[in-house]
Amino acid sequence: MNYYFCDACHYCFEYSTPPDRCPDCGKTQWREHPAVRPATEKEIADLLRAKAEDEAELNLTACG
Ligand SMILES: [Zn+2]
Predict the structure, then answer these.
(1) Domain around 47
(2) CA of 54 relative to ligand 1 center, distance in Å
(3) pTM given for the model
(4) For residue 62, how far is its CA from the centre of ligand 1 (angstroms)?
(5) What pLDDT is recorded for position 63?
């Protein structure tokens, strides 16, 4: 899995192959360049942290 980032809607996502468009907003171009580009390490770290927080929240709900 690789990580990609959409400059049009700021969506970070995992994808096995480089997508030609954003799976969230569907854009192919953004301000004269491709909307989707490989995510930076910081963006990947942010995504993983957000995912971990989501899971922690789900676990709390399940226990509560
Ligand atoms: Zn997008």
Answers:
(1) 2-63
(2) 21
(3) 0.82
(4) 31
(5) 66
